[in-house]
Queue: 2 jobs
Job 1
Amino acid sequence: MLLTQTGRVMSRKNSLFITLEGGEGAGKTTLLEKLQQALSEKGYEVVATREPGGTKLGNMIRKILLNRDIDCSIGNYTELMLFLAARTQHIEELIEPALEAGKIVICDRFNDSTIAYQGAARDLGVDKVEQQCFLACHGVLPELTFFLDLNPEIGLERTKKINKDSAPQGTVDRIEAEKMQFHQKVRSAIQQIAVKEHERILTIDAERPAEEVFTVALKKITETLLNKGITANV
Ligand code: T5A
């Protein structure tokens, strides 16, 4: 979506901005890959990206934030600013140009993650962080969000079985290493956002098999594309 100068949020006609949200190991990357493949096969131009990341600067910030091999202290507010700096660059360099070009952009994590992790779990304040997110992304907001809802105990177990960012299996990054209570706060915060913003966010039970999660998400995207009159270039 796009924020006008009068503060009105309006959707872009020929493009669709989708975000995937959820806790650690909820299946966002898995869903992202499946959606990209299915939509591309239907003839849509799809940009699949993630946060923090998506640009050269974003990936550099990602390394600092996840702190796998960089050992420095990061204050909570600094952490917020780093996530937002990566987001602003991501929007300017990748997301907005892709939307302008009429593409479907699917982003693994976006503002809801910041509100949940930094606003709620780090206790910086949900409303305050929401406002900061709004400023950082110049009103470029997703029209559709899938919240993959999962008990963090299951999600963290899942992440131990993958080689994330080429790190050895079983190792955790700086944020995954937080206490279970932190991850429960994240889940509860996104659940609350999903209730408040039920028109944008579709909650999917992420304990369901990956193929079922994908089917639900693809159906919703297909409906949204149809409602917007967006057809594939085939
Ligand atoms: N963060 C991020 C903030 O604090 N603030 C912010 O503003 C932003 C943007 C990012 C970290 O930064 C934090 C949140 C994170 O801690 P990341 O590496 O991008 O770090 O973390 P995740 O997005 O959580 O990535 P993960 O890879 O851990 O989780 P995914 O992508 O949700 O899960 P996925 O798809 O990799 O799946 C994990 C495993 O589960 C299996 C997969 O095959 C894989 O083995 N799986 C399933 N198994 C059973 N049933 C299903 N339905 C399954 N779906 C996938």
Job 2
Amino acid sequence: MGTQFSVTVIGLGPMGQAMASAYLAAGHRVTVWNRTASRADDLVARGAVRADSAEQALAANELVILSLTDYAAMYAILETATAALPGRVLVNLSSDTPERAREAAKWAAAHGAQHLTGGVGSPPNRIGGSDVYTYYSGPKDVFEQHKETLEVLTRGDYKGEDPGLGALYYQLQMDMFWTGLTSWLHAVAVARANGVTAEELLPYATDVMGGMPDFFAHYTPRVDAGENGGELERLSMGVASIDHVLHTTRDAGVDPVLPAAVLEIFRRGAAAGHAEDSLTSLVEVFTGNA
Ligand code: NDP
């Protein structure tokens, strides 16, 4: 085995448990603390050290990984233990907004600690694999210093010094993930109402969603250049098409809220003068530049 690292993991939901487990499995030393102490039992049985308090967990190691529901949970825990913060490196792998990450970095600095923001792009069962990654931002030297330890969990993708960036990339990913997944669930509901199973839809769902990267590759340089010409497709066609989806949904007795929202966005774009432009003109509509 290579270097043995020593880390603290605070927060033992499914993600924190997977992280502590990955360190133990790779032979590293792990101190754990969780509000609900019993969640540490299995890890302790496998060799983790149980801290009796958050303060003790902080005192145990320079590198402290936080895996909590959100940043409010971090304050709820660390505000009771500020005496142990000086000299710590807080690697905050809890999800929250870029602005809250920036505030947290200032808060940590005011207490003598450094803060690395992290956004984990992987489910718990893939932690420990090098094919998954985590966005990081904050002081580059701190990231570089702890990169090897952090990469026991996932590959590290450093986005820059601004503490908000790691959270921003994570939220962008979730923006696409939640709306993309919900669109599939909606299609499954319409299919089911028509007697078509998710299994029967699967090859076509895979084909449609799997084709998205080709659209991204085609549109990306045009979007960045502000070119929204409608040579290949026009927003007016999109309005007619999503209206068909809306009616198909209603006819099936399925809640139409999702296609209705998309139709509303398309109509706003058309009303703003983009009917003959590409669908990519919606970026201007969303940003209020239409
Ligand atoms: P959970 O919400 O299940 O776990 C939350 C942890 O936060 C628990 O240890 C919980 O303690 C603790 N916690 C919450 N509120 C408080 C509080 N007020 N005071 C003290 N402790 C608190 O989240 P996950 O483990 O699933 O995920 C952790 C983070 O990772 C989240 O930010 C999530 O968005 C992100 N993430 C999760 C993924 C997943 O698939 N699970 C995927 C990618 C990112 P207690 O046990 O006492 O309740």
